[in-house]
Amino acid sequence: MVKIPRRGAAQPTSKTTSTKASQSSSTAGASDVPTGRLKQIGMVAGLIRKSDPRALPITIGAGVGVLVVLVVVGVLTNLATLLIPLGVLLGLVTTMILFGRYAQSAQYSAIEGQPGAAAAVIQSMRGNWSITPAIAGNRNMDIVHRVVGPPGVVLVGEGTPNGLSSLISAEKKKISRIAYGVPITDLQVGELNGQVPIKQLQRKLRMLPRELKPHAISELNSRMKTIPSSLQAPRGPMPRQGRMPKPPRPKVR
User: Fold this and answer.
1) Which helix (H) or strand (E) holds 155?
2) CA distances (Å), origin 86, targets 2, 69, 79, 99, 189
């Protein structure tokens, strides 16, 4: 016999099914967010530990020290109910600030000396900055990047001073033809005399005098797009196009 459902019985509808599915997906997404953040914090902590083994103990000790000081002061002055929560808050803020600074220093140490490290540092800057990486270079891995921002045009080079001097002077001539009257500044990233360490590159750019307004920066960016890149191609014979070797044929018995 075939059972006929009653009229008053509630039957699942597509709307109810979709609502349950959306609720389950939102719950899963909300649970994945803290897990992803914890993994990210763990990865950053591991990077800091490799860069400086004393960084994490100093960070945790500073936060605990602030908390202990305010707890002791609160007990001695009968203001524990006010200073203990304040100590917890200030301890967390101190730990977060130190953790962020050590993380930034560890990232700089990880990319220091690698080609394109200066471009990666500048691209992480906030504000009205536009960077065009690797506008010029040579076989010795000397690279010049172009930055357009409030100070005007800044040419950032990374490599040897002898190789960068000719590349930067050639780019200055090109830019001066298109952006007449715009200040052009050149910086060399490195640890040699007269160069800017990569850890101080962002600070050096922000300390440059501001010469352009936002509308002038956007107009200058459109002009810079007309300059062709002078990045040199590697010399030497080009590799011949060959075919993949054929697999051996099976022996027929």
Assistant:
1) strand 152-158
2) 71, 11, 11, 20, 43
Residue 77 belongs to domain spanning: 38-111
**Residue labelled with tokens 């960084």:** 55
Q: What is the pLDDT of residues 133-158, one digit of tens each?
A: 989 888 888 899 999 999 999 999 99
For residues 222 and 156, what is the distance between their CA atoms, to the nearest angstrom?
20
Q: Are residues 134 and 184 in the same domain?
A: yes
Q: Which burial class, exposed, middle or buried, applies to 6 when counting CB atoms under 10 A from its CB (0-12, 13-18, 19+)?
A: exposed
How does pLDDT run across 13-71, given as a tens digit for each residue?
444 444 544 554 444 444 454 667 778 778 877 878 887 788 888 989 999 999 999 99
Output the pTM of the full model: 0.61
Length of the chain: 253
The rounded distance, in Å, linking the Cα atoms of 103 and 142 is 28
